[in-house]
Design brief:
Blueprint: E1 13-21, H1 26-39, E2 43-49, E3 64-72, E4 82-87, H2 90-98, E5 116-125, H3 131-136, H4 144-147, E6 155-159, H5 161-168, H6 176-180, H7 183-194, H8 199-209, H9 217-234, E7 262-266, H10 267-282, E8 286-290, H11 297-304, E9 311-315, H12 319-331, E10 335-340, H13 342-347, H14 349-358, E11 362-368, H15 385-390, E12 399-402, H16 409-423, E13 426-432, H17 433-437, E14 439-443, H18 507-522, E15 533-534, E16 546-551, H19 555-565, E17 568-572, E18 574-576, H20 582-586, E19 591-596, H21 601-609, E20 615-619, H22 628-637
Parallel strand pairs: 1-4, 4-5, 5-6, 8-9, 8-10, 10-11, 11-13, 12-13, 16-17, 16-19, 19-20
Antiparallel strand pairs: 1-3, 2-3, 7-14, 12-18, 15-17
Helix pairs in contact: 1-7, 1-8, 5-7, 7-9, 8-9, 10-11, 10-16, 12-14, 19-22
Length: 639
């Protein structure tokens, strides 16, 4: 019997969610599936979603770890709801079916809250639905599907993943615990069958993943192939989905993208590579001084492994030491960076003030997470914006920019370095957990294609009579550093005389210097791109009634919402200073809705800049990315 191969008609993208215990390998499984999809030429966007607990009790609701990926073409987000779900146990099934209401004792399936569609394909490990499993996941009956109120349209695919994995590896000589760790590969093989993916490429990818643990290659390969063959041979009664562009109804995005080498890249890695590229382009050594903190630590890890690229890293004893070592590197003439998350940004604030006063180039990367305090360290938020803008003592202006996708973390890390080196200022780059841990398809650029970086230098004619107060026509002070004979000077955190560069407590001089530092930041607006309006894909005539506004990581979700609403989107990557045409763009629309994962920080910032404009706001603070459907619902119903 041939496997059923009904294709889902006219589908441009598919959302897949892998969920199970923290030890079930859901992040590895999801990453491997996403990477293969990217190598096959599909756009991807991923959402690793794991608990903050180090390890919750196995089989409990609090311990569910998940990985979601949207793939296909015209992919803007990791998806609101999954079309295909792999649930490794009863708790994972419950969390996915009930979404944010999984802790409610009377909750039933409601598509408004569920993490999968009413017509989803749900693959469940039936070996993990024992009475004990159901009790730990707080079920009240012995039939989880009925208790959850799953509609008949949900395609349940029961598979004895544990039993089948044990059977596949019965002659492997592995102990039972090691065998059970391979269950995820059986599920992955089954998903590869479902999507008609080439097993040769999948096996090669697995070999690359385990090349440093070669003993794991053979058993995991066997289990994965057995999972594929299980779907093939048993002709599972489920729609099979083909994603190859030549045969599928799903559009292949390769024809829409420029030629080049593509890969799947996570935001933290893209950020690290952007810093490396900027250092190479600028002809500077790259220095990162940082203290480990979730979810920014991977930037330190990635750069620490790049000694071959002349990268210097210091894992400092605390956040303050991390930024201070970076400032020392800036004094010495290097491209100086530090990385952190929200709590660390607050600790670094005094030292950032020193870099502002000394007018040194410094890149501060803040990977935002849920807060305040320890808060939700593995969840995403956009709640550090006002801290980045104003969270320092005195009049202390710094540039603030934000990445908007996992892939363009590379671009904005590069731009942060360019702005810092050319304007002698600290630049704060905001990313967040969603971007840092998620991944996207990325075209690897050639160094020659990247914008030129010209670090500020000191004119030869100033040799012998240089002082740190001297500035160019933009108001940017010249950069001299130790080892440059004839450019010796004193540069500290005390206010200096605007003409001599010596310490000064003169009131009028202080005001002059405050305004000079402010002007230096404002003039950067002349060099950043103007704000571009993203037009809806809708074919209806465009009106100037509604404009969605966002910043940072919400771009994909707002783009998708704008397409559904048939309206325009203005998305900000440059926040301080704002693009020069910001007022011109905003004033064209009757209704402006600023959407943020906070209580309205960017909306308040825009109101302060443009008090005459009427600005609405839509906010969510749940530790998760936006749901597109909720943005659409608000825009359609709010007055």
């Amino acid at each position: 019997m041939q496997p059923q191969t009904n294709l889902i008609p006219e589908v441009k993208h598919i959302v897949v969610r892998f969920c199970g215990d923290s030890g079930d390998g859901m992040q590895l499984t999801g990453n491997m599936f996403a990477q293969l999809a990217a190598e096959m030429g599909h756009e991807i966007s991923t959402l690793p979603d794991f608990p903050a607990e180090i390890r919750a009790p196995q089989g409990t609701l609090g311990g569910v770890s998940a990985f979601q990926v949207e793939l296909g073409s015209e992919v803007y987000t990791s998806g609101d709801k999954a079309d295909v779900v792999v649930a490794m146990n009863a708790a994972a099934l419950k969390v996915c079916a009930l979404g944010s209401h999984f802790n409610h004792p009377q909750a039933h399936f409601d598509e408004a809250f569920s993490l999968f569609h009413r017509n989803a394909i749900v693959i469940v490990d039936t070996d993990s639905l024992t009475d004990k499993d159901l009790e730990k996941a707080l079920y009240h009956t012995d039939n989880p599907f009925t208790e959850l109120g799953l509609p008949e349209s949900v395609q349940i695919v029961p598979v004895a993943l544990t039993t089948l994995t044990k059977e596949a590896l019965k002659d492997s000589g592995m102990d039972n615990k090691s065998v059970l760790k391979c269950r995820n590969m059986f599920a992955l093989g089954l998903i590869y069958w479902l999507f008609d993916e080439p097993m040769e490429k999948a096996i090669h990818l697995l070999e690359e993943k385990f090349k440093k643990k070669t003993a794991l290659i053979a058993p995991n390969t066997k289990v994965m192939v057995d999972g594929y063959n299980y779907g093939q041979n048993l002709a599972l009664n489920v729609q099979q989905v083909r994603l190859d562009g030549d045969k599928s109804q799903i559009s292949n995005c390769k024809c829409q993208m420029p030629a080049g080498h593509y890969t799947s890249i996570a935001g933290n890695k893209a950020t690290a590579w952007g810093l490396i590229a900027a250092a190479e382009k600028a002809g500077k050594k790259l220095f990162l001084g940082s203290y480990p903190i979730t979810p920014a630590t991977d930037i330190l890890h990635e750069l620490a492994a790049r000694k071959d690229m002349n990268v210097m890293t210091v894992q400092a004893e605390d956040e303050i030491a991390g930024v201070c070592t970076a400032i020392g590197a800036a004094f010495a003439g290097d491209l100086a960076c530090t990385s952190t998350s929200g709590p660390g940004l607050s600790l670094k604030s005094e030292a950032i003030g020193l870099a502002v006063m000394a007018e040194l180039p410094l890149v501060v990367i803040d990977v935002q997470r849920g807060g305040p305090s320890t808060g939700l360290p593995t969840k995403t938020e956009q709640t550090d914006l006002l801290q980045a803008l104003y969270g320092r003592n005195g009049e202390c202006p710094a540039v603030v920019i934000a990445a908007s996708s996992s892939a363009n973390c590379f671009d904005y890390a590069y731009q942060a370095c360019k702005i810092a080196l050319e304007n002698m200022t600290p630049v704060i780059l905001l990313t967040d957990t969603y971007l840092a841990n998620g991944s996207a398809l990325w075209r690897i650029p050639k160094l020659a294609e990247l914008p030129e970086i010209k670090p500020q230098s000191v004119p030869e004619e100033l040799k012998g009579h240089y002082n740190p107060a001297l500035r160019d026509e933009r108001g940017v002070r010249y950069w001299a550093y130790p080892g440059m004979e004839g450019y010796e000077h004193r540069n500290i955190g005390l206010e200096r005389d605007a003409a001599k560069g010596t310490i000064s407590t003169n009131p009028e001089n202080h005001e002059q210097m405050v305004l000079a530092r402010k002007h230096k930041i404002e003039q950067i607006a002349n060099t950043i791109p103007e704000l571009k309006v993203i037009r809806s894909n809708d074919q209806r005539p465009t009106t100037n009634d509604l404009l969605l506004v966002g910043w940072g990581s919400t771009e994909g979700h707002l783009h998708a919402a704008a397409n559904e609403l048939g309206c325009d989107l203005a998305h900000f990557n440059y926040i301080c200073p704002l693009p020069k045409n910001t007022r011109e763009v905003l004033s064209q629309y009757k209704r402006i809705i600023v959407c943020e994962l906070n209580t309205g920080q960017f909306a308040a910032y825009l109101r302060a800049q443009f008090p005459d404009l009427k600005i609405e706001q839509y906010n969510e603070i749940q530790g998760q990315p936006f749901a597109v459907e909720r943005i659409v619902r608000y825009a359609q119903t709010a007055i």
